[in-house]
Design a protein that fits this description.
Layout: H1 10-27, E1 29-33, H2 34-53, H3 56-65, H4 70-83, E2 92-99, E3 106-112
Antiparallel strand pairs: 1-3, 2-3
């Protein structure tokens, strides 16, 4: 599986992506760099897929990835899985923004799309 290293060690990168995924699930919209947003999209979609599965194993996998955050895990399984029950992927959308002033990093907003596919 190809992935972006994001200038971090493996443990730091996994922790950062788990934190960003949790915040995306809780707030349903976050602003971050474009590279991070593209990586978070993979994990957010995987968490929704776990929620749609609904099994105990899927709940434990989601809970383990999200560092035992019960609030985010409950939202995935109770709210988001129901919202996207008829959708087969593509649960997130990325909007590109202007560059960040300090280091000219490309910024983006990642958010969940609304409801079912059309």
């Amino acid at each position: 599986m190809a992935y972006r290293k994001l200038g971090r060690t493996n443990k730091h990168r996994r922790s950062m992506l788990a934190n960003l995924t949790r915040e995306l699930i809780k707030n349903e919209r976050i602003t971050t760099t474009e590279a991070r947003a593209k990586e978070v999209r993979k994990f957010a979609d995987k968490m929704i897929s776990y929620g749609k599965d609904g099994s105990l194993v899927a709940r434990r996998k989601a809970l383990a990835f999200m560092q035992n955050d019960n609030v985010a895990t409950k939202k995935v399984f109770d709210d988001l899985a129901v919202r996207y029950a008829n959708r087969n992927g593509g649960y997130t959308r990325i909007y590109k923004l202007d560059e960040r002033k300090g280091d000219d990093a490309l910024m983006a907003v990642i958010e969940f799309v609304e409801g079912d596919a059309k």
